[in-house]
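Anyone up for a design puzzle?
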């Protein structure tokens, strides 16, 4: 392995992600693991140079202070306690905090500043080859940043041992299925299976308005399509996923690496496919680091910088029943929104932006005629970790241009709203 590691054990601190990123900013790799890691699990981790037991206000659960095993305290590497068992928390002053971290990481632990994306990829390629051997790997390739970077990394590591399945459920952004095929099949020579399941998904969603039911229907149907393709492939030992660190946090940091993201497992894993293990090479990266990895792997910028996209796709950006007409409205409005943000040079400043379709109808005027059409909601937020977010202060001229284009170019829309709510209290999505 090319990289030294500082291990952070989660004892309830809300600042673990911040701490991990600060250590990585020093040029040293850092991972966050559950507090109940065993000595054997610790020994299996490569190049651990030090351990931080990071406490905090949430370290007491039901009146009992959670703690690491005694064996961890006796580990053959330096162990530092922060805000735990009476030890001082990390200083708040940025300079003092950096000095304290630097002293522990470099002076006490003797770690080397060898964390960079080139080394990370080299390490992951080696680890993937060790894990997979000569076996087959299956990946559901959505075309989003996370799954695309995983695909590129696995292609580099194991080539044709990887089979990618791209399911077009009709709820993707405009032009995205074609881009997936172009990049991975045509340019990267991936073993890609393309499945056109548009009608199948829309039929299942007919008449369904409840957002949770839509999520479950889309997730379950995705699994069924995936299952059908897996049967055709034959025996597959490994399932690859684009899990990243915010996914782990929001699912509960408990070490259960076998937990599949909710939008992929609502119907359960395919019974006919005996997956032995998951391959999740990005699970300790943040979104900006995943994008760095994608660039290092040679993926095109339009794909690497693609905005996050929910697993159920546009199904949850359509309030109420999903119909072909509504999907077309959202795709067209979203394309205009994205085009104008890019024209204004704001696409790199905003973390996520999209158009959604409300179920509101209202009276309007187009030309000499009264209309009774839909209202489109526009959303744009800034965030560092996608666990909290703030509404972007969008210039009025951009909003004006987008509004004019949407109501004039997109059929059945006569109003445009801008969502000013942060997360919390709202979610980033508009379901």
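Challenge accepted. My sequence:
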């Amino acid at each position: 392995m090319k990289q030294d590691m500082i291990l952070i054990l989660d004892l309830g601190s809300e600042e673990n992600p911040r701490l991990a990123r600060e250590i990585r900013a020093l040029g040293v790799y850092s991972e966050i693991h559950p507090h109940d890691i065993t000595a054997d699990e610790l020994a299996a981790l490569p190049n651990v140079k030090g351990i931080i037991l990071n406490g905090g206000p949430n370290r007491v659960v039901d009146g009992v202070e959670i703690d690491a095993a005694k064996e961890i305290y006796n580990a053959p590497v330096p162990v530092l306690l922060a805000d735990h068992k009476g030890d001082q928390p990390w200083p708040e002053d940025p300079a003092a905090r950096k000095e304290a971290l630097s002293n522990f990481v470099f002076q006490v632990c003797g770690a080397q500043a060898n964390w960079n994306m080139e080394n990370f990829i080299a390490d992951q390629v080696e680890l993937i080859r060790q894990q997979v051997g000569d076996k087959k790997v299956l990946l559901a390739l959505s075309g989003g940043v996370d799954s695309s970077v995983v695909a590129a990394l696995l292609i580099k590591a194991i080539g044709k041992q990887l089979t990618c399945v791209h399911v077009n459920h009709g709820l993707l952004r405009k032009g995205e299925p074609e881009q997936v095929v172009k990049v991975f099949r045509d340019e990267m020579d991936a073993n890609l299976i393309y499945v056109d399941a548009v009608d199948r998904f829309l039929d299942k969603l007919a008449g369904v308005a409840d957002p949770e039911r839509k999520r479950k229907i889309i997730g379950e149907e995705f699994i069924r399509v995936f299952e059908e393709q897996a049967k055709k492939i034959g025996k597959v030992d490994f399932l690859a996923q684009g899990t990243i660190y915010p996914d782990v946090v929001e699912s509960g940091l408990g070490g259960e690496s076998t937990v599949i993201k909710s939008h992929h497992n609502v119907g359960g894993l395919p019974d006919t496919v005996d997956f032995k293990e998951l391959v999740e090479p990005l699970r300790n990266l943040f979104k900006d680091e995943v994008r760095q990895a994608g660039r290092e792997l040679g993926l095109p910028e339009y794909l690497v910088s693609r905005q996050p996209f929910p697993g159920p796709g546009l199904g949850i950006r359509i309030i109420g029943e999903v119909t072909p007409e509504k999907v077309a409205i959202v795709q067209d409005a979203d394309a205009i929104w994205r085009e104008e943000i890019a024209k204004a040079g704001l696409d790199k400043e905003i973390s996520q932006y999209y158009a959604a379709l409300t179920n509101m109808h209202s009276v309007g005027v187009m030309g000499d005629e009264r209309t009774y059409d839909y209202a489109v909601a526009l959303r744009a937020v800034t965030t560092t970790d996608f666990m909290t977010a703030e509404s972007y202060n969008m210039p009025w001229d951009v909003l004006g241009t987008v509004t004019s284009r949407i109501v004039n170019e997109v059929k059945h829309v006569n109003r445009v709203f801008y969502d000013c709510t942060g997360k919390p209290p709202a979610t980033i999505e508009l379901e």
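A detail worth pointing out: Residues 355 and 378 are 5 Å apart (CA to CA).
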